[in-house]
Structures are given as structure tokens and as C-alpha cells.
């Protein structure tokens, strides 16, 4: 096939992009989005500060613009994200303890409920594990409400949207030997053994110019063996070499339960790492060499 979405679909997968609502009026951007992609993640518009700017007052305006565009164009949605230590609204940043726990539960109930039936997968919890060698949880106001906060978030999301796949999403968990990877693996193993509703793990895949660690496919295989789907949720690669993108794509398509890949933006100029030219389209919207690396790897699957 000749587009990312159609090529991924040949093996039952999706190919997605992070989308910013403000760019939906850019015709070059939208034409690439509609032509190439089959899944959309809002880059910022579903985060806690965007959807609940004042406690108990929900604003879905920008997120709805993205959802309506995506569903109207036949694309599916990844929701991002219901609980994160960053991008909390000001009122939440200063909360702790049982009041924060209750506010989190209400937030998830409201937002996942609002979008129930429209979301393929939710990043229920984002980036809850610490960097470095501990393999433990990241300190945050959410973590300080009790170590069970993540499973409470997943159970709350399931109750609010029984259909969406519920994912844990993080970065620097692609290398199997990393302590952070092992920490997340043990949590997923524990959740599956106790019946906590988790369906998928998102590997953000923000890579340096060398691309993925050599163990990436092993990591995806080992998580999938726990009984969850795995997805590459925020892919970008410094300098975007075709070989690094092809290797990343192959790591996914070689794993049956790797259900799709999302790049974190469309054109280099749309990227949070724009200085590193990390995406598949240049600032003019032209396909880069990395695009063909991905397309060929999808078509070989
Ligand atoms: O909305 C305001 C706007 O009103 C203001 O004029 C402008 C001026 O700085 O800032 C705008 O907000 C910015 C927002 O992006 C929208 O552009 C925030 O300051 C900025 O912090 C925010 O950055 C986002 C970042 O998450 C927030 O942590 C990036 O766009 C987004 O790409 C990035 O995405 C994250 C994933 O959610 C999680 N994984 C890592 C990834 C990259 O950091």
C-alpha cells in the first residue's frame, strides 16, 4: 500500500499521529493527516489542565474538535491522558491526600465518561515510574495518595468506559535491561495476576539518533506475553534516519500484539523536538527518507 495507514492496516495495525487542535486550520497539515494516518492522539487537549481547568468545570472544546475531525475522517482515537504528574491544573497541583484521590477519581469518571464509545485506547496513567536505577514509582502528589493510585485509576476508567482499551504509558521503558522497564513490567504482571483492568502498555519511543535499543523487540515480546497489547505511542527519532525508523517499525510488526505506531506530530516543524528534525515529513509537508523506511517495513510485514 502507499500510505502509512493503509500499509499498517494490511497486518491489522494502525498508524497514528499526535494532533494539535490549533493546526486543524492548516490545510497542508490536515491533508497529510487525512491521507496518511488512521489513529489520532491529541497532543495536549485531553490533559488534565485542558479538560478540567477549574475543579468540577470541564472544558472539552479543543479535544472535541480533534475527536470530531478524526472520527469524521474515519480515524480512531487514542486518549491522552487521564492521570499525569505534569500538566495538572493549578488547583490540583496544590492538592494532596484523600481530597486529591477523590478529585482524580472524579476527573477520570467525567472525562472517560464524556468520551465513552469514541476512544480506542486511553493512556490512563502516564509516566508514573522514576527515572534512574530504582525501578520504583516517581514521587508526585498522586503517588503520595497511596501506592494503589494507579490501579484505582484503571478501575475508575473501566467503569466510566467499558469499551476502551486501558493503557499504561511511559518513556525510557524500551530497553529490557533498564530498571524502569523492569518496574513497569512487574506492575503489569501484578495487575494481570490480580485482575486489575489493564489492556495495553504504551512505549513512548522518543529515541536518539541511533534509534531504538537493540532489546526493543524483546521488551515488546515480553510485555505482550503478560497478556497486554503493546503500542508505540509517541515515536520520534533525532535526525530521523531511515534505518532507525525502519528498525523501530520492524520491532513492532515482528510482535503480533504490537497493534500500532503513533508519531508525536506530523511535520518536523510540528514537533516538540523541532530542532532535531525527528518526524516523517519536513516543514513543507514533503515525505522524508524516513517515511519510506517506515512504509517499506510496514509493507513487508
Ligand atoms: O497553551 C499554551 C498557550 O496558550 C501559550 O501561548 C503557549 C506559550 O508557551 O504555551 C501553550 O502551552 C504549551 C503547550 O505545549 C501547547 O503548545 C505548554 O507551555 C507546553 O508545556 C506544552 O508542551 C507539551 C508537553 O507535552 C507538556 O508537558 C508539548 O506540546 C507536548 O508535545 C508534550 O507531549 C508529551 C506527552 O504528553 C507525554 N510524553 C512526553 C511528550 C513530550 O514532552
Automatic annotation (TrEMBL):
GO terms for molecular function: endo-1,4-beta-xylanase activity; polysaccharide binding. Residues 1-297 form the GH10 domain. Its EC number is 3.2.1.8. It comes from Amycolatopsis eburnea. Keywords: Carbohydrate metabolism, Glycosidase, Hydrolase, Polysaccharide degradation, Signal, Xylan degradation. It catalyses: Endohydrolysis of (1->4)-beta-D-xylosidic linkages in xylans. The chain holds residues 32 to 332 of 449 of the full protein. It is an enzyme of class 3 (hydrolase). GO terms for biological process: xylan catabolic process. The keyword Lipoprotein does not apply. Belongs to the glycosyl hydrolase 10 (cellulase F) family. This is Beta-xylanase. The keyword Mitochondrion does not apply.
Amino acid at each position: 500500500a502507499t500510505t502509512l495507514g493503509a500499509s499498517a492496516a494490511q497486518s491489522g495495525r494502525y498508524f497514528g499521529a499526535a494532533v494539535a487542535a490549533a493546526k486543524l486550520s492548516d490545510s497542508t497539515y490536515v491533508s497529510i493527516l487525512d491521507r496518511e494516518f488512521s489513529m489520532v492522539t491529541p497532543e495536549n487537549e485531553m490533559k488534565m489542565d485542558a479538560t478540567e481547568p477549574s475543579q468540577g468545570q470541564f472544558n472539552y472544546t479543543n479535544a472535541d474538535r480533534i475527536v470530531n475531525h478524526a472520527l469524521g475522517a474515519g480515524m480512531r482515537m487514542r486518549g491522552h491522558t487521564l492521570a499525569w504528574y505534569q500538566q495538572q491544573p493549578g488547583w490540583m497541583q496544590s492538592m494532596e491526600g484523600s481530597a486529591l484521590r477523590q478529585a482524580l477519581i472524579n476527573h477520570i469518571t467525567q472525562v472517560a465518561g464524556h468520551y465513552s464509545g469514541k476512544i480506542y485506547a486511553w493512556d490512563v496513567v502516564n509516566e508514573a515510574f522514576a527515572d534512574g536505577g530504582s525501578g520504583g514509582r516517581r514521587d508526585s502528589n498522586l503517588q503520595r495518595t497511596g501506592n494503589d493510585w494507579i490501579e484505582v485509576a484503571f478501575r475508575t476508567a473501566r467503569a466510566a468506559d467499558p469499551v476502551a482499551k486501558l493503557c499504561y504509558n511511559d518513556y525510557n521503558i524500551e530497553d529490557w535491561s533498564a530498571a524502569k522497564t523492569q518496574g513497569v513490567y512487574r506492575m503489569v504482571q501484578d495487575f494481570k495476576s490480580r485482575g486489575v483492568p489493564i489492556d495495553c502498555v504504551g512505549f513512548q519511543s522518543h529515541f536518539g539518533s541511533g534509534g531504538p535499543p537493540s532489546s526493543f523487540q524483546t521488551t515488546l515480546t515480553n510485555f505482550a506475553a503478560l497478556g497486554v497489547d503493546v503500542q508505540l505511542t509517541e515515536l520520534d527519532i533525532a535526525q530521523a534516519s531511515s534505518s532507525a525508523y525502519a528498525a523501530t517499525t520492524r520491532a513492532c510488526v515482528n510482535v503480533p500484539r504490537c497493534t500500532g505506531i503513533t508519531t508525536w506530530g506530523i511535520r518536523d516543524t510540528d514537533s516538540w523536538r523541532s530542532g532535531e528534525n525527528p518526524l516523517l515529513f519536513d516543514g513543507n509537508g514533503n515525505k522524508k527518507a524516513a517515511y519510506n523506511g517506515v512504509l517499506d517495513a510496514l509493507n513487508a510485514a
